[in-house]
Amino acid sequence: MSTTIRIAAPKQASRGEVMELKALIRHPMETGYRRDPYGKQIPENILQRFECIYNGEKVFAGEFFRAIAADPFLTFYTVAVESGTLEFRWVGQDGQVYSESVELEVV
Amino acid sequence: MRRRLPALLLVVASAALADTRSFVDQSDLPAEAVRSGSVFLTAETRALQADGFANPGYLWVERGGELFNDGDKVCSSCHQADALAGAAARYPQYDAVAGALLNLEARINLCRQHHQELPPLAYESDELLALTAYVANLSQGRPLTVAVDGDAAPFFEQGRAYYFQRRGQLNLACNQCHDDNWGGKLRGDTISQGQPNAWPAYRLEWQTFGSLHRRIRDCDVGVRAEPHESGSEIYISLELYLAWRARGLAVESPGIRR
Amino acid sequence: MAESLQRREFLARGAALLGVALVPVAVATPGEVDLEVAGLFGNRPILPGRVTLEIPPISENGYSVPLSVEVESPMTAEDHVTRILLFAEENPQPNIARFELGLRAGRARIQTRIRMGGSQKIRAIAELSDGSLWSTETFSIVTLAACIIQ
Q1: Phi then psi for B79, rounded to 5 degrees?
Q2: B252: number of Cβ within 10 Å
Q3: Is C48 helix (H, G, I), strand (E, B) or coil?
Q4: Where are the alpha helices (DSSP H) in chain C?
């Protein structure tokens, strides 16, 4: 699935350093409570889950409900342990997966 | 239903309180009084706009940048992004070939048709919003300086007339809120000057990104008037008047607005 | 509660005349949050403290309110935060989000943006690796927009 994703992560970090990671994804997080201009109910369409996977290991995750604002934004942290890949993935209510990866060098 | 009437009256009363005259004062907002809409936002909303990462408008700027470099005959094969810096600050602009006043959206669509042999994008479509956001963002920080003389003059007069025309069931002209009562309160909101320099912008109420024309339509609906089509000549003319009225204000797109 | 429901219904009806509208919905209550919490944690004690929740005291609308939550923890193998849960007392649903951290988080701090269907208390509960639960709550006001369009 395609959407626009923005990730802010360091390209390089020292071993043991606590890194700040930021993720922003384009998604309406439609609650199911709104109606369109023709009066028709707009169906619920939300992202239900977020995961950050660091070299295959889940280091942070979250379950989202309708109260997460449209175009979800997250800042969280993880410890730099080794060089490799940080994968950011979101899962929609019907199982759609959106993901973006960044490379990290640990020195 | 019982409670709608007092709320409506409140809106009418607070907007019209300072102006009980039966005519509308048609003097333009003095240049030294001009303030960006950012001034009237809470510190948190201003901080979101200023945050180059968290500002969700950049999702559209980024997508626009991809589209700008995407396709068989791409925008970037004619336009160097650097050379477009400042261009958005000069729109709307009269185009002699088209014989029409063009805003950024119309210019992008004309480019698509004439130079890329592509169909125009629908107003408010994701692609047109993204391309407009990208091109507007290239002018961020540049002062608005539109030409309102020559061929642009009749459009300017038309836009100015729209601005000062009372309309809708509430019988309000734009200037009654945005010239006469800016800084005042309308329920929980502080009334802005209705400046266009942050658009296209991410509007929190919409929970998405949108065009200046969509915002103007909301104002027209707000005074219970029939809104015009986005991209219509009358709205582009109004956009020209607004851009002239905002002369000197820096382009902020992608802005964050309430 | 009755007043809040009435207000929502009024907003929804006013909006129905003008295009995009809210579907009238019931709202969560402090009681519903308590029920949700009881369902998750049973009768385990929830202690005040260790959790800091920051939300602006006043927001100009409830569509995208910045929220920051941090839990005081050394984040060591013996003592770290495993979960942070957020609840809203007056939203249609009591849950906002449930975050799963671990030792490798390094720091138990999260920032996000939430929806608030009106002025209310937001509650944060942190679960630690020793099984203890810590909590705090913050009240935040959402002001009413000028023009009744939506």
Answers
A1: -105, 125
A2: 25
A3: strand
A4: 2-16, 30-41
The second-level CATH assignment, the architecture, of B31-257 is: Orthogonal Bundle (1.10)
pTM: 0.89
**Closest to B19 in 3D by CA, of B181, B220, B189, B174:** B181
Cβ atoms within 10 Å, residue A98: 19
Q: Which of B212, B203, B196 is nearest to B106 (CA)?
A: B212
For chain B, domain boundaries: 31-257
Per-residue pLDDT at B236? 98
What is the C-alpha separation between B7 and B1, in angstroms, rounded? 11
Q: How far is C113 from chain B (nearest CA, A)?
A: 10
Helices (H) and strands (E) in chain A, counts: 0, 9
List chain A residues with CB under 8 Å of C16: 35, 39
At what angle are helices B233-245 and B212-222 packed, to 10 degrees? Answer: 100
**Predicted ipTM of the assembly:** 0.95
Q: Express each pLDDT in A22-41 by its tens digit.
A: 999 999 999 999 988 788 99
- B219 in catalytic set: yes
| CATH superfamily of domain region C27-142 | SoxY domain (2.60.40.2470)
Domains defined along chain A, listed by start: 5-106 (2.60.40.10)
